[in-house]
Amino acid sequence: MASTSSLALSQALLARAISHHGSDQRVSLPAFSGLKSTGSRASASSRRRNAASMSKIRSLRPLVRAAAVETAEPTTDSSIVDKSVNSIRFLAIDAVEKANSGHPGLPMGCAPMAHILYDEVMRYNPKNPYWFNRDRFVLSAGHGCMLLYSLLHLAGYDSVLEEDLKNFRQWGSKTPGHPENFETPGIEVTTGPLGQGIANAVGLALAEKHLAARFNKPDAEIVDHYTYAILGDGCQMEGISNEACSLAGHWGLGKLIAFYDDNHISIDGDTEIAFTENVDQRFEALGWHVIWVKNGNTGYDEIRAAIKEAKTVTDKPTLIKVTTTIGYGSPNKANSYSVHGAALGKKEVEATRNNLGWPYEPFQVPDDVKSHWSRHTPEGAALESDWSAKFAEYEKKYPEEAAELKSIITGELPAGWEKALPTYTPESPGDATRNLSQQCLNALAKVVPGFLGGSADLASSNMTLLKAFGDFQKATPEERNLRFGVREHGMGAICNGIVLHSPGLIPYCATFFVFTDYMRGAMRISALSEAGVIYVMTHDSIGLGEDGPTHQPIEHIASFRAMPNTLMFRPADGNETAGAYKIAVTKRKTPSILALSRQKLPQLPGTSIEGVEKGGYTISDNSSGNKPDVILIGTGSELEIAAKAGDMLRKEGKTVRVVSFVCWELYDEQSEEYKESVLPSDVSARVSIEAASTFGWGKIVGSKGKSIGVDSFGASAPAPILYKEFGITVEAVIDAVKSLI
């Protein structure tokens, strides 16, 4: 228990804050589990506020109600709650201290709300972190990850044992420096870049609302869970959070409850130096219900009452602003940025132990706390067992819906789904690959139950509308067209949340390829967190024409080829577009990017869905013995140019192999024998052509080859003129070949 002096200090700090207004082997899954295995102190002046200032601030918040404490009913003895909360704090303190690295301040401040969530509110099964109908939790302020690791440890997750806490931030541990869903079962999404997590939470809540609308029946509520999140001031400052939270309000995601850790401290100091907006009023304007818990340090009943109230609001998400003290309990560092991102230090750890009356050794959890938390293992198993029985009854009554939902829960695609993809012959009409993409999207939506997506206000240009379905909106959440508005960054992160909700949810999102610059952060997290989002990126080159260099991607293809665990497709026609989608749908742990043309392209002889699976393959060749005079390599709209140049060179007596390099990453996965059959090492005369940066092509064409591309910004003009002026022509290919042979 805390000493009288520490409580007095904490209450003083709290008053100041109120005034002021970042696949585990240990898990054994049952047969139908819901997922396959797979510097200095803040100034004294900044801590003091007079009564007039408090009155002024309060007057700015007339619409924000504090939690109704009188309605709260404590569900747990307060002494064990205090002990449990301090266990969370000191597990975090001890782990950061041992690693001499990390962020102890957030876990120390957020421990009360986190305890109440994990111990009293959330439904989960510690022995099966992938149970489908579990509540989801996202720590958007991922730097405070020891909060989450401590909770998972106390709750009985096998992924975070005491040894894992002791190995915090060490090589090969299950407790990395920020939460990683692919590393630690029990972690829903990978967070760290601030704002990404709350946007992921919007995606998780969207998935729940969508599936509930599609599959629940009057006599069977089979999809019924909440999404909770904790975000901090840094998340609030990042623009992505506003994008995503705007959509959450618009969509009325009533089962999304976000806790705002309102501690007024960021890395550079007090947030008053850069962040003084009224967050409460902003969220109300975004369509959220807002509650203010004034005492987040010891006001357990206030927190309980806020959660209870939030659950009564079903037509909008809820933001619970919880005013806390960062580093609560530290006598000399609480409420300062020095506790944000560094270990407390030996002396301050000892002082904090004395201050909070904590006599236990590092990493020691008191027996009564262990006993208290141990109930979550049998309770969690019972929750899952009850749900499984409920699903079995549902399956009997509604076999068709159950089969679809089971496909989404397990990620098992319907047999023969790929046969729905269209195929083309050279006689088929030519078309822009963005239009061919729309044919694929609509074909897939008919046979893949979890296929859904949308565009950043460009559906009519990206050609991404699913014609058989309506729009996912507040009143029609069962529909599959997602309208993201002009919010690329939020869109990408929301899709990460959707795909990480259930293995069979396959979201796609779309914009112009150049605007990947706006959502690159989310796309990188897709790759890192093994989230198989499909990115449909149209207007892929200078071929878009008159819109000019602001809209013409140059370096983008090369940059995504450099991104780990990312498939960068640039299909040349209908068969290659269908082939790219076939791979993208099956690659559930790797995001795919399809760069698609605005301009019409022919259906080329020699292209195939099967060829795309190899990444690079021969579409025409008149040589023998695997010894062509020259190899021409193209992607996308330039494969046609390479094919035409090949035909002309053959008329001059040359033996020419034309190769489509639709996806470098898939080609890199092929055997050395296969690669030699496509690009024989003895043939050094190689020419590549791609209407983009030539960066990276050297590894394909070799030191003696040539690359034709665009290594400057584009220009505004009709596409044929741009291709001529930038030298993306048949003639340029032939000249390059003649210079080599």
Would you spell out the secondary-structure blueprint of this structure?
Elements: H1 4-19, H2 44-47, H3 51-59, E1 65-66, H4 78-99, H5 105-121, E2 136-139, H6 146-155, H7 162-166, H8 196-215, E3 227-231, H9 233-237, H10 239-251, E4 256-262, E5 265-266, E6 269-270, H11 279-285, E7 289-293, H12 300-312, E8 318-323, H13 346-355, H14 367-373, H15 376-397, H16 399-410, E9 431-432, H17 433-447, E10 451-455, H18 459-462, E11 481-483, H19 488-501, E12 506-512, H20 516-528, E13 534-538, H21 556-561, E14 567-569, H22 574-586, E15 592-596, E16 600-601, H23 609-612, E17 617-621, E18 630-634, H24 638-651, E19 656-660, H25 664-668, H26 672-678, E20 686-689, H27 698-701, E21 706-708, H28 719-725, H29 730-740
Parallel strand pairs: 1-7, 2-3, 3-4, 4-8, 7-8, 10-11, 10-12, 12-13, 13-15, 14-15, 18-19, 18-20, 20-21
Antiparallel strand pairs: 5-6, 9-16, 17-19
Provide the low-confidence segments as ranges: 1-31, 33-65, 67-75
Structural class: alpha/beta
Question: Which of globular, elongated, flat, extended, rod-shaped describes the shape?
Answer: elongated
Radius of gyration: 28 Å
Read across the widest sheet, the strand sequence of neighbours is 1-7-8-4-3-2
Oligomer: single chain
Site (Important for catalytic activity): 103, 340
Cofactor: Co(2+); thiamine diphosphate; Mg(2+)
Keywords: Magnesium, Metal-binding, Thiamine pyrophosphate, Transferase
Subunit structure: Homodimer.
